[in-house]
Amino acid sequence: MLRIMHKSKIHGARVTEANLNYRGSITIDKRFMELANIVENEKVLVVNINTGDRFETYVIEGEYGSGVICLNGAAARLVQCGDSVIIISFGIYDDSELENFKAKLVFIDSNENEVNCIIDENQ
């Protein structure tokens, strides 16, 4: 049996930009992406902590170390600059892969958009 599982997340990042005049997606600091094992064009679920809105989009790589979290296109209407978001990625796994599987969690200090804590439960 294949299961769709929570693979990783970036928790508590602050939205730094909202660009309505773009075709769509979320731009994420490459450092955050690397720490959370998220790659460019990967599908993600974005949860706006401030409003409870949830939506899916795909990832565009932002400048390494910039702290950028930018919602583009229609998704820009679902956030305000300064909102905190959770960005969740998923993977499809066979039951045999789940025996020792744990999600990778990256917690962001939303005041500075700096990494606060990384939990790699696979280690």
From TrEMBL:
CDD domains on file: Asp_decarbox (cd06919)
Compartment annotation: Cytoplasm
Swiss-Prot/TrEMBL GO biological process terms: alanine biosynthetic process; pantothenate biosynthetic process
UniProt EC number: 4.1.1.11
Binding positions (substrate): T57, G73, A74, A75
Quaternary assembly: Heterooctamer of four alpha and four beta subunits.
Function comment: Catalyzes the pyruvoyl-dependent decarboxylation of aspartate to produce beta-alanine.
Protein name: Aspartate 1-decarboxylase
Source organism per UniProt: Alkaliphilus peptidifermentans DSM 18978
